[in-house]
Amino acid sequence: MPDFPPAAPDEVVLPCSYNLVRPPDGSFGTRLPNGSGTGMVGMVSRQEVDLGLGPFGVTAARSLIIDYTTPVVNDYLRILAGRGRPEVDPWGFLLPLAPLVWVGLVVALVVVMAIVLLLARCLSLHSPALAPYVRVLLQENSWLPALWGWERLVLGGWMLAMLVVTQSYTGNLMSLLAVRYIPQPFQTLRALLDDSATTMIWEYGTASVNKFRTAEFGILREVGESEAAGRIMFVLATEYLNILRGLVRSGTHAFIGEDLTARVLMAQEFSRTGRCDFYASREVFMPFLFCMIGPKHSPLVYSVSKRITWITEAGLYNHWMDSLSSNWTVCERAPSRITVRTRLGLGNVWGMFAILVVGNALSLLLFLVEVLTGHHLHSLLTVTSSWT
User: Fold this and answer.
1) Are 352 and 95 in contact (CB under 8 A)?
2) Domain count, the chain
3) Which residue, 40, 128, 221, 358, shows the most beta carbons closer than 10 Å to its own?
């Protein structure tokens, strides 16, 4: 620990005693429209206590009734949510190719067939064979009639392109079938707002709550509107661990708090369970300077500010916070994809069987339509021939 500078000549250092007092509502507090304060901010403004430890986020409303010390730390908010369980995507056989590639394949097939028809019409040739292009795409055997030279070139180019695509698809599919995805959907505040089934948890009476309640536009205004819709749950700092283990882990709720708080909570849970059951969002938002507070014009604010400056410049505060969240980095870099070696089950491939069933059902429906249409046309021809 570094040696603190000696006291100034006009400064007398005396031993002292202190009492820790908790606010009745357990909150940090803010300034009300009538000029009074709630929580710890209210107790300090009424001079019921000499200092508020906090640290407290700096806001214009609070500064009207209390004084801030030198900043202790600059922090911001993150989303803390429960990591999902490894999932198998039954539609994983579509993933080896991006959606645009699938669309491109269909468009390319239509364009190639249109070109073949156009060239055949221009050269006044017989009707060209189009079925081989579809069969090559589906990797099916095909009988080819006698082809002109230009037809051989077009079909050969199509076969070469489909060879590259199908081999790439097969290789990627083999890899994807061995991968399990761990859902981590709430990487941004926008993603959390768009999921109406998830309840947001904020700490009661903080500067961040006051900020979104007073926001007049933007995404913070939407957060305030979600409170009116009943999508926000407020808790106290003493309830963090309980709500984390009960509500956030289950995936029905997501906690929004300071980055340092999220680190400490994740580190404590990893130390307790040995698992990374939670993740923190990549996006950070609503930065605040955090300070201690004192009554207006209190001499203690100036004196404490100097000590805070010594501590922060010596790196002690960061060292203390790092020691509390030493296991944070384990879960910060926890993978969102894992590879497994196991037999394929119905849960892995039921999407392919679903396509097979739907395809057979549509083909049966088309068959019935064709049969009924044939009978109808036959009956019409019979009636017509009988008239003649």
Assistant:
1) no
2) 2
3) 40
